[in-house]
Structure formats: C-alpha cells, structure tokens
Amino acid sequence: MASKRVARSVVNWGQFAERVHPNQREYFRAFKAKSENFVNRVHKNPESLPKIDFDFYKARIAIPGLVEEMQKGYAALNISYPTDKQNLKSSIDTESKAAAEKLTELKDVAAKMRQGAQDVIDKIDKLPSPDEMTMEMYTDYFPEQKLDPENNPTFWPHTKNYQPGPHSDAIN
Amino acid sequence: MFSRLALRTGAVLRQHVTKHPVIVVAARSGSTEQWDKANAIYYGPERDVKNFPITKMAEKTPNTRMGIFPESWFKYLEEKTGVSGPYVLGTGVVLTAFSKELLVIDHTFSELISFWIMFALVAKKFGPSIGKYLDELSESYMKAKWHQPIEDAKVNSKEMIKQIDEGLWREEGQTHLFEAKKENVDLQLEAQYRERLSEAYRAVKSRLDYQLDRQNTRIRFEQEHMVNWIVQNVIKGITPQQEKDAISKCIADLKGLAAKA
C-alpha cells in the first residue's frame, strides 16, 4: 500500500496560479487541465471494493457452494496498490532539489542586483551637485566618462554622436 | 545668474557632465563603489576642510554699490575711514587722475559718458528679462541633464527592486509545482487502484450474473420443454372417434343456441 491515498487535489491552485508568470500561463493551464483529468479519473470509480449482495444470489443460484465460495473469495480479495515503478516521485524530488539549488543561486544573483539598485537609490543623492564638481572630481566620480585625449582622442565636435564606430548613446 | 556661471570653468564642466547622463550609465552598471571612493577622497575624514574648504559656485554675484563697486570694498574701508571714506577716496582718485592727466578730457570724452549711460539704460531695461530667460534656459538644461536622469535612475532602481522581489516570489512558487507533480503521481496510482477494484468487482459480479442467467435460462427452457411435451402427448392421445364426438357435440350445441335465439 502506498503511504497515503489521495482523492482530491490538495494543492492550492489559486496561490499557484497567482505566482505563475504571465508568459507561462498557457503551460500552467495545460498542466492544470492534466491534473484535473487525473482527479476526474480517480472519481470515475468508487473508493473501496463495492459490496455485492450475495444473499440475493444465494437465494437464486441453486448450485450448492458456488455463491459461498465466491463470497469467501471476494471477501479475501487483496488487491495490491499500484507501485510507482518508474520511481517518478524520487525523480520529481531530484528535480525539485535541482530547482531549489538553482533558486538559491538565483537568489544570490538577485540579492546582488538588488543591493546594487538599493545602493544607487541610497547614494545617488550624495553625489556632489554640478555647482560643486570640478573636472578633477568628475574624473574620479565617473572614470569611464572622463576626458582623456591622450588615450581616447575624439573628433570635433567631441560629442558622442560624431565619433566613428559604435557609440553608447543607444542605451540612453 | 547664468552670465556669471558662464565665465567660470564650472559651466564648461557642467556642460560636459550633463551632456552624457552618466548617472544612468553608472546606475546600470551598478558601479557605486567608484562613488564611494570619490566621496572618501573629497568628503572623507582626510580632507582638510578648514584650509581647503569645499567651494561652491555662487548662483548670484555679490552685492554692489552704484552698480559696479563691490560691497566688500566699502565694508573693508568703512572700518578705517567711516561710511563716507570710500566715496571720498573714489572721488579723490578720479580727481587725481584728472589732475595728473591720467584721465584726459579730450573731444572724445563725451563718447565715454554717453556709452556708459546707454549701457546702463539697456542693462536696466532689458537686463532682468534677459536674466530671466537665461535662468530658465539653465534650469531646463539642468533638469534635462542632471535632475531628471537622477530621478529616472531612482525610479528605475525602485522598479528593478520591485521586479526582482516579484520574480523571486514567483520563483518560490515552484514548490507548488513539485507538490502538484507528486500529487499527480499519487492521483494516477489511486486511479489505477480504483480501476483494479472496479475490475475485480465487475469480474465477480459478471460471473455471478452469468450463473444466475444460466440457471434462469435452464429453468425456463425446461419448463417450456415440459409444457410442449405434455401438450404434444395429449394431442397425440386424442383418437379420431373422440374428435368426431366432440365436433358433433359442438354442432348440437350450436343448433341449440340457434333455436334459442
């Protein structure tokens, strides 16, 4: 016998649906339909062995001992519970473990990104205003933007749009 | 005032700073460490703020008297000469210049006076409106190139944080998925089990029904056969004489009935 017997879905589908990304709604819907199909399949048949009215047959079938034997056999009937032969559950466990590991990795990355964004919010107000900032300060605050004609000469009129090659204005 | 700003290198710098909204770039790459380093250099504890104070560009020119002479000069002289001293000194300097012919009054001198009078008039009449226009220009420029990018960076960062949080929340919903998957396996097993039960039930039931039907059919057949057999034998047992008697009896009965009618 299996450890537990399920008759209906105990998964909180409402919460599950809420958490599904809008792009994955279709997959979710298909999955849910499949699950409901399983539930329906379960409900097609009764939960336990149906009773047979042996007295009815005893009164009518004249062959001696037949019904009694059948009744005995029916009562002693031990129908084995099907086992998970392909070990799907353990493979699902492995899958879920792998997903959990991935999630922790993702969480690390997300925490870093989140911290970066939070840093920007916290620190952007501490930047000196343009009234205070000198060329030297500008070089220190934004080294990738500094004027560096020795190493990074530019063409007149020295704005990004007029420089040859790909320029990063596209990201703005 | 813009005109004063323009004279200083700061304006040139500002132009350079704000030409490229670097804030956004920095926010994207998340390189706020550089800001921390720079802050430590310019505003950290090692900075000698007393001897090298943090200078800030003044927005407006200092106060003047008579339009051109700085207030600070008067303040400096008033301590030693009293309030009229600076005026006496100024007048004296001009008179000395005339006296020593450092400032020569020739036939072009009237040009000098009229030029400056006209200059003052123009400055008085159009100065404020020009200043206002330039201020607005400067403000809009600052807004577009400095304040707005900063605001955008903040909004973007907040949005990013929100999205990260929501994304993680969604990702954590995977527990539901695996729970459902396991449950599906259980459900299939249960369905299989129930199907087996039903099959067993059907098998036993059908055998019993078969026996019952078989018996019923047999009894019915036996009865029919018996009835047929009896009837046939009875018919066989009737002799022609009896038949004739019965028919003549019937005819006599009919005749009796006809006489009555």
TrEMBL record, chain A:
Is Metal-binding set as a keyword in this record?
no
Q: Which SUPFAM superfamilies match?
A: ATP synthase D chain-like (SSF161065)
Give any GO molecular function from the UniProt entry: proton transmembrane transporter activity
Q: What is its main location?
A: mitochondrion
Q: Which UniProt keywords apply?
A: CF(0), Hydrogen ion transport, Ion transport, Membrane, Mitochondrion, Mitochondrion inner membrane, Transport
BP terms from Gene Ontology: proton motive force-driven ATP synthesis
Origin: domain of life: Eukaryota
Cell compartment(s), UniProt: Mitochondrion inner membrane
Q: Which GO terms describe its cellular component?
A: mitochondrial inner membrane; proton-transporting ATP synthase complex
Record's InterPro entries? ATP_synth_F0_dsu_mt, ATP_synth_F0_dsu_sf_mt
Membrane listed as a keyword: yes
Role played: Mitochondrial membrane ATP synthase (F(1)F(0) ATP synthase or Complex V) produces ATP from ADP in the presence of a proton gradient across the membrane which is generated by electron transport complexes of the respiratory chain. F-type ATPases consist of two structural domains, F(1) - containing the extramembraneous catalytic core, and F(0) - containing the membrane proton channel, linked together by a central stalk and a peripheral stalk. During catalysis, ATP synthesis in the catalytic domain of F(1) is coupled via a rotary mechanism of the central stalk subunits to proton translocation.
Q: Which family does it belong to?
A: Belongs to the ATPase d subunit family.
Annotated PANTHER family: ATP SYNTHASE SUBUNIT D, MITOCHONDRIAL
Name of the protein described by the UniProt record: ATP synthase subunit d, mitochondrial
| Origin species | Owenia fusiformis
User: Could you read off the lineage of the organism from its UniProt record?
Assistant: Eukaryota, Metazoa, Spiralia, Lophotrochozoa, Annelida
UniProtKB/TrEMBL annotation, chain B:
Keywords in alphabetical order: CF(0), Hydrogen ion transport, Ion transport, Membrane, Mitochondrion, Mitochondrion inner membrane, Transport
Q: What is an example of a GO molecular function annotated in this UniProt entry?
A: proton-transporting ATP synthase activity, rotational mechanism
What does the similarity note say?
Answer: Belongs to the eukaryotic ATPase B chain family.
Q: What does this protein do?
A: Subunit b, of the mitochondrial membrane ATP synthase complex (F(1)F(0) ATP synthase or Complex V) that produces ATP from ADP in the presence of a proton gradient across the membrane which is generated by electron transport complexes of the respiratory chain. ATP synthase complex consist of a soluble F(1) head domain - the catalytic core - and a membrane F(1) domain - the membrane proton channel. These two domains are linked by a central stalk rotating inside the F(1) region and a stationary peripheral stalk.
InterPro entries named in the record: ATP_synth_Bsub_B/MI25 (IPR008688), ATP_synth_F0_suB (IPR013837)
Q: What is the lineage of its organism?
A: Eukaryota, Metazoa, Spiralia, Lophotrochozoa, Annelida
One cellular component GO annotation, for this chain's record? mitochondrial inner membrane
State the protein's name: ATP synthase subunit b
Q: Where in the cell is it found?
A: Mitochondrion; Mitochondrion inner membrane
Q: Which domain of life is it from?
A: Eukaryota
Subunit and partners:
F-type ATPases have 2 components, CF(1) - the catalytic core - and CF(0) - the membrane proton channel. CF(1) and CF(0) have multiple subunits.
Q: Which Pfam families match?
A: Mt_ATP-synt_B
